[in-house]
Amino acid sequence: MIKQFLSRSAVCLLLACLLAGCEFANRGSETELQADEEGRLIQTVVEPADNSIDPAELEQYVEEQIVSFNGSGEAVSGTSESSAASAGSKDESRDGIEMEFCKVKDGKIQIRINYADCSQYTAFNGTACFFGTISEAKKAGYSFERAFLNEKGKPAEDAAASIAERADEWKVLIVEEPMRLRVPDKILYTSENMKASGRTTAIVKETETESDAADARAESAKTEDASSADSGAAAEETDTDSAEMDQFVIDDFALYYVIFK
């Protein structure tokens, strides 16, 4: 997200060396996205800083981006037009995004921003984000034909059946950027690239070896083959609802899922 902020302007020149190379290599346990029961989001970004960072200039720049977004409903810092469109334009009756703080402390950039929902988050950051029931996620084009871990971080062989049975009841938070996720109720399953770190929190797993990743994909492929008939029928039903995901063209394995009650 910070890389998104700093893609243009003089501030970018000051911070590019520090931030532009951050390719989301597990941001660790500090950067977090928290969702409440209504789907409102709190994004807390924590990134390394150095003496070249001017806290006042950074705060002013971020604030300008937020003010501009709230005025137009579109991000202005390099978010692609298609990404913003996929989330929908901002409803004028809905509160805009809000920055709680932006500071440099203890050698780290710390920014906290509040969003009314995932569509605001997507439009502002240009990255995929979903909050809702599993059924709603499927209609939006997200696939659940993949391996999942239980709340203990172990492979969940029963996940596919349980997810299908409770699809209208259970909810899911899905993001594109690796970071700690905090949900409003007990975690049931995570995608294989995450693991539960508490009752309501999950963190990104350490990078797997190529063989481990291949095994996970092979297991997911078996699951997909077993349910190909059902998924084929579902694809016809959700063609018109998957436009949002079509804008991103994201590999399912690059997304992070947390399923909760």
Provide the descriptors you would attach to this structure in a database record:
261 residues; alpha+beta; 2 domains; 10 helices; 12 strands; globular
Poorly predicted regions? 6-28, 75-93, 233-249
Number of domains: 2
Average pLDDT number: 76
**Order of adjacent strands in the largest pleated sheet:** 3-4-2-1-8-11-10
Q: Please tell me how large the radius of gyration is.
A: 19 Å
Global structural class? alpha+beta
> Major sheet: size, sense and barrel closure?
7 strands, mixed
Binned strand content: 15-25%
What is the percent of helical residues? Answer: 25-40%
Gross geometry: globular
- N-to-C SSE string, H for helix and E for strand: HHEEHHEEHEHEHEEEEEHHHE
C-alpha termini separation: 28 Å
Q: Please report the total strand number as a whole number.
A: 12
Q: Count the DSSP helices.
A: 10
Summarize the structure.
The chain is α+β, with helices and mostly antiparallel strands. 36% of the residues lie in helices and 23% in strands. It has two domains: 125 residues, no CATH class; 131 residues, no CATH class.
Question: What can you see in these coordinates?
Answer:
With 261 residues, the protein is an alpha+beta fold. It folds into two domains: 2-126, no CATH class; 130-260, no CATH class. 36% of the residues lie in helices and 23% in strands. The chain is built from ten helices and twelve strands. It has helices at 2-5, 9-19, 55-72, 81-87, 118-125, 134-139, 159-165, 210-226, 228-238, 243-246; strands spanning 32-35, 41-48, 98-105, 108-115, 129-133, 148-150, 171-175, 180-182, 187-191, 194-196, 201-204, 256-260. The strands form two sheets. The protein has a seven-stranded mixed β-sheet. Strands 5-7-12-9-6 form a five-stranded antiparallel β-sheet. Strand 10 and strand 11 form a beta hairpin. It is globular. The chain starts with a helix and ends with a strand.
